[in-house]
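Quick one:
INPUT:
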């Protein structure tokens, strides 16, 4: 799949297969399709509205997947936080010579968002990527 293919999907809670994806479903598939990374756990049982459950899943993926904080770079997961809760995720991609966050949500559907705009919507955004990558 290409970035344009992801932009043609639609937001569906619990979505894990194109064309129906939620934010985690999009990140999982984009990492594989666009960056050749291993498929991360599905966590399909977690309701996107359950921010405590999302936070626990995000922390488990980070701990088990060997992720570390990195500056924004293609393939990095953009984890959006409000206080102590992970409330949303996207993935950094490069398009038209700049970095964007590819994301999907119930209000917008799939979109490319400038990193600085994505960051202003949350208390903090942490970018994570595999440890063994440059």
């Amino acid at each position: 799949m290409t970035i344009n293919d992801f932009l043609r999907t639609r937001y569906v809670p619990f979505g894990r297969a194109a064309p129906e994806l939620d934010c985690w479903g999009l990140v999982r598939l984009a990492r594989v399709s666009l960056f050749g990374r291993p498929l991360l756990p599905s966590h399909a049982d977690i309701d996107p509205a359950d921010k405590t459950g999302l936070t626990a899943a995000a922390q488990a993926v980070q701990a088990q997947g060997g992720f570390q904080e990195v500056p924004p770079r293609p393939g990095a997961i953009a984890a959006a936080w409000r206080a102590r809760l992970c409330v949303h995720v996207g993935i950094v991609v490069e398009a038209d010579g700049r970095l964007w966050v590819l994301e999907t949500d119930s209000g917008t559907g799939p979109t490319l968002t400038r990193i600085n705009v994505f960051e202003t919507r949350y208390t903090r955004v942490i970018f994570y990527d595999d440890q063994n990558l440059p």
